[in-house]
Amino acid sequence: MPEAWDRRMDRLRGTGVNIIFIFVRNQRTNMKILMVCLGNICRSPMAEGILRRKIAENDLDWKVDSAGTERDHIGEPPHPFSLKVARRHGIDISGQRARRFMPGDLEKFDKIYAMAPDVIREMQHLAGQRTPLEKVDLLLNEPYPGQDLPVPDPWYGGEDGFEKAYDLIEEACDRIIEKYGVKAEAKR
Inter-axis angle of helices 43-57 and 80-88, to 10 degrees? Predict the structure, then answer.
């Protein structure tokens, strides 16, 4: 491949054509990502909204969705504090409705991020103990590889817990974009 580029470059030299190189590494096109927490009303809706915005900002052809392992909140909108914190950061998640994680999600999505280890255990239970979860990882393993840290569940606290969860999720989403998205560098 480099030889072919060299030949093309030789033909363009001296023609007055400005040449711009775009180097793209690690780009995954048409990637489908699922964010999963327990009820799909606190952490995973914020994660879906944050990643959706970053996908748009980076002009990526990805899809993102969210789900919960529990059935208690199916059809409900995100928690009021999730809505408020996301809105404060310029993200509207008001159109989202909670849904339950389904075993078929393991085939439908390329990557599935759980918010905490207990969520992975629940996903394993729902999918069947013999079902491999190789597409599943903890979200915070993106910025903190191998540390298996949870995004703390803000359900049990006040608005500040939702803000802290937002910050952690945003950091992880930045790493996802860096890892699987476009890294472009233009040179003249």
Answer: 30
Tokens of 90: 């310029």
Question: What is the Cα–Cα distance from 28 to 3, expressed in whole angstroms?
Answer: 25
pLDDT tens figures, 142-174: 999 999 999 999 998 899 999 999 999 999 999
Annotation says 173 is catalytic: no
Check if 153 is active-site. Answer: yes
Q: Please tell me which residue in 52, 65, 99, 153 is annotated as part of the active site.
A: 153
* List 37, 65, 99, 173, catalytic entry: 37
42 is an active site residue: no
Residue 152 tokens, joined? 């703390």
Q: How far is CA 2 from CA 18, 24, 155, 179, in A?
A: 19, 15, 54, 24
Helix (H) or strand (E) holding 64: strand 63-68
Out of 43, 52, 53, 99, the active site residue is 43
Q: pTM score > 0.85 for this model?
A: no
Strands 111-114 and 32-37: parallel
Tell me which DSSP letter residue 23 carries. -
Q: Which residue has the higher pLDDT, 10 or 138?
A: 138
3-state SS class at 186: strand
Angle at the Cα of 60 from the Cα atoms of 113 and 146, rounded to 5 degrees: 30
Beta bridge mates, 68: 37, 100
